[in-house]
Specification:
Helix content: 55-70%
Number of strands: 0
Number of helices: 13
Order of helices and strands: HHHHHHHHHHHHH
Oligomer: single chain
Strand content: under 5%
Largest sheet: none
């Protein structure tokens, strides 16, 4: 059995990802454009068939599938910009700016050279997306059950804890392909394809070659993901409260997805800033054999860790916005629960003495 307070809270949670472990509730099925109370899937219409039950195995699997599509496709699409960003970080003497980096890369490797590392990028970030979004939903349910009705008051902490926990496992899945990608992109002549690079790295350094960057990845990705999810969730709340001229329940699916995209881009800018120093360390570490994160950090210095920030802000802002857009679109398509922004439940108001 699930507490009534949690059910009330879940109805008011940010639409991209319900906070609470609840059972499906029966509510009047009316048109979005008519008067209706909030439901577990405000974007869904009554003639589209039953929703996927929140918290079910199917729900979590579909969330993971949404993560695969959102992360794998977007990162693969932005490989050219990621390639230049990595080269700005590891060889700033040669690659002095984004434009200069593109020109030199095309001159040396041709247009096809801009796609270097696309295969490990797609595979690695698909696995990361599966774990990142799938486990985020799992940990939100787990932590909200621990908090009980106080989840509303601690929702930002919940977003931070759930996203950090999910990213811990996501980076373990990502690390091998990230190491291969960076080696292909930043070490000219080393290898041009995934099949060529993997056995070569294994022969030189063993399994360690694929996991030596996992700690710097945690340093980069955990703050990044904590910002990505918490900033997105709270930005959605603020947009519907202050920017969108009508309640979310009256917005069409397209309008809701526009809000998703805008909130995702805003979150992406902050993500890029907080995670960039660690990203610089990862790029250099995976290029150079035998180096440690501490050695690379000392070598780069305070200014060196910020090289390539502009390129990364552009890349991550676009990336994050597209990821949230795709992820939320998957939820719409499969009719996964997408509640509206949170409101304090009546039971908590009474407990805190906020009711008359």
């Amino acid at each position: 059995m699930y507490p009534t307070a949690l059910t009330q809270l879940a109805r008011g949670n940010p639409f991209s990802s319900p906070l609470f472990n609840i059972q499906k509730v029966e509510e009047p099925k009316q048109s979005l454009h008519g008067q209706r109370t909030r439901t577990l899937a405000a974007a869904a219409t009554s003639d589209e068939g039953p929703e996927v039950e929140f918290g079910s195995q199917k729900y979590f699997l579909l969330c993971g599938f949404g993560g695969i599509l959102s992360c794998g496709t977007t990162h693969a699409a932005l490989v050219p910009l990621d390639l230049i960003k990595c080269r700005l970080q590891v060889d700033p003497e040669k690659f002095k700016s984004i434009g200069n980096g593109f020109r030199l890369t095309v001159r040396e490797d041709g247009v096809r050279g801009l796609a270097k590392g696309w295969a490990p990028t797609f595979i690695g970030y698909s696995m990361q997306g599966l774990c990142k979004f799938g486990f985020y939903e799992v940990f939100k349910v787990f932590y909200s059950d621990l908090l009980g009705e106080n989840t509303y008051l601690w929702r930002t902490s919940l977003y931070l804890a759930a996203s950090a926990s999910a990213e811990f496992f996501a980076d373990i899945a990502l690390a091998p392909m990230e190491a291969v990608k960076v080696r292909i992109q930043t070490k000219p002549g080393y290898a041009n394809t995934l099949r060529e690079c993997v056995p070569k790295m294994y022969a030189e350094e063993g399994v360690w070659a694929f996991y030596k960057g996992v700690v710097p990845l945690w340093m980069r990705q955990i703050p990044y993901t904590m910002m990505k999810f918490s900033c997105f969730e709270r930005t959605v709340e603020l947009l519907y409260k202050h920017a969108v001229p009508k309640p979310r329940s009256e917005c069409t699916k397209s309008e809701q997805l526009v809000v998703t995209f805008v909130a995702g881009y805003i979150a992406g800018v902050f993500c890029a800033i907080v995670s960039h120093p660690a990203d610089s360390v990862v790029s250099v570490l995976n290029k150079e054999s035998g180096s440690t994160a501490t050695q690379v950090l000392k070598k780069l210095g305070p200014k060196g860790v910020w090289k390539g920030l502009v390129a990364r802000i552009i890349m991550i802002g676009t990336l994050t916005a597209l990821q949230w857009f795709i992820y939320d679109s998957v939820k719409v398509y499969f009719r996964l629960p997408r509640p509206a922004p949170p409101e304090m439940p009546e039971s908590l108001k009474m407990k805190l003495g906020l009711t008359e």
